[in-house]
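In keeping with the milestone schedule agreed at the kick-off meeting, the structural modelling team has produced records for the first pair of proteins. Each record is given below as a sequence line and a C-alpha cell line. The laboratory manager (R.T.) confirmed that both were archived under the project's standard naming scheme.
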Amino acid sequence: MSAKQLEQAALATKTAFLFPGQGSQKIGMLADLAEQFSGVKATFAEASEAVGFDLWHIAQSGEGLNQTEFTQPVLLTASIALWRIWLELGGIMPKYLAGHSLGEYSALVAAGAMSLGDAVKLVNLRGKLMQDAVPQGTGAMAAILGFDDEKVIELCAQVSASGQGSVEAANFNAQGQVVIAGAKDAVDAVIALAKENSGKAIALPVSVPSHCSLMKPAAEQFAEALEQTAIELPRIPVIQNVNAEIATDVAQLRQALTAQLYQSVQWSKTMQFIQDQGVQYVAECGPGNVLANMAKRLPNIEKAFPLDSTGRLEDALNAILMAEGKIA
C-alpha cells in the first residue's frame, strides 16, 4: 500500500490506536503471540541488532526490564511487533495514532515517521539521559486522585513555593487522575496535602521523575540526538503529548519530542481530540490494558480493546472489522 493509499484508508475509519508508555512492561510479554507469529521475534531481532543487546531476552527473563534505558526500547519493540501482526492479519488502518510518553515514539514508528532501528536507539539514549539527570532516590512520582486538574496544579505550586523542592503535574491522564513528578520531598508533601484535602495519593514505583523541569538537562542533550535522526511527517496523524495537536512539519515534531521530556503529557486532551474527530473505537497496541481501560470510561468511545495476547488480538480484529463494516 502506497503512502497515499495508507492515508486515505486511515481517514475513512473511526478507530484510533494507542501505544502505552513505561509501566506497562511485564515479564514474558508477547510470549504466546511469538509462538504463533514469527514476526514477533523477527521484530525483536531487528531492534536488538540496532541497540546491540538482546531485547527479547530482557522481555522474557525480566533481567534489567525495569531499568529505564532497557524498558523503553523493549516496550517500543513490543508495540511495533503487535502493530505488524495487526497489519499482517488485515487489520484496518486507524484514523489517528497516539502514544503515552514513550508510546509516542511507537506511534511515530507505526506511522512511518522514523525507522524501528532509529527509534530504539533514541529511546535507549532517552532512558539513559533521564536516569542520569536526577540522582537515584532524589526524584519521585505519584498519582493524585479525586481532584480536578487545577487543584493538583495548585497543590504543586503551594509545595514548590514552600522551599521543599520542585514538583509539577506530569501526566493529565483522566478526569480526577493526575500524576505529579519532582523532588522526592516535594512529591511526598503533595501526597500529604492531597490526603489532608480528602483526596487519594499513590506513590509510583519509578526511578525517574518524568515530564517535569528536572528533565530539562536531559532534554538539551536529547535534542542533539533528535537532530541527527532521520524523521519524516507521519503517514497517519500522530497526536502529540505536549499539546494534543498534530505536527505540520518535521521541525515542530522534533521540538515537541524534546519538550515532551520536561512538559506534561496532555492525555486527557488527546483523548478528547480523538472523540471530537469522530473516533468510536480504540485499540491499545502494546503490553497491558491501562490505556484501553481509561478509554472505556469516555462517553464517545464505544469499544476499547487491548491487543497483547492471541485471544485479545483476535477479538479486537474481528470486532473492529465488523464495526467498521469490513466484514458482516
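The second protein of the pair:
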Amino acid sequence: MNQEKIGNFIAQRRKDKKLTQAKLASYLGISDRTISKWERGKGLPDPMYMLELCRILDISVNELLTGEFIEERNYQQKAEDNLLMMAGQEVKQTKKMFFYENVIGIGSTSIFLILIFMSVYFVENSVLKIILFILSFIFLIIGVSVALKIETEEGYYECQKCHHKYIPSYQQVYFAMHYGRTRYMKCPHCQKRSWQKKIYSK
C-alpha cells in the first residue's frame, strides 16, 4: 500500500469536509499528531478507527486503502487487491515479530548460560554467586515470557484434525508440549488434541 498516497487522500478529504486535524482527531478520540502522522504517510489508520474515519470523510474503506476514489466498475478488483495487500502485510509483520521472538529467546538463553558459567568458574564470593544465579534466572524467565507472548499473539495455530485456525491463550501455549513452533494443544472448535503448526495468516 502506498502510505503517502493514502495520507494525501485523507488530507484532501479532511479539507474538502472543512475539518482541521484537531477537529477530526476529536471525532475519533485520538490526538491531532496521529492525524498528522497519517497525512504525512508515516503510518496507516488502525483498523479500529477506519470505519468511523471513512464515515466522517464520506469514503469507503476500499477507497481509503487505495488512496483515491474508485469507479464502480473497478470497485471489486480494487477490493480484492486491497485484501491481498493487507494479507501480505500481515504475513510480513508476523514474520518480523517471529524474528524478534527468536532474538529475544536466544539472547535471554545466552545471557542465562553466560551468567551461570561466570558464577561457577570465575566467582568465589558466595553472595555474588547467588546474585548471579538469581539474575540469570530473571533474564531467562523474562526472555521466555516475552517470546511466548509474541508467539501467542502473532499468526495462528491450525488444528490438524479439523483445520480450524485460531489464536490460543498464553496459558495454553506456555504449558503445551512443543518442538519449534508446533505445539500439542486442544482445538477450541473440535475439542481434539493434535500437534498444531504455527501459520502466518488465515
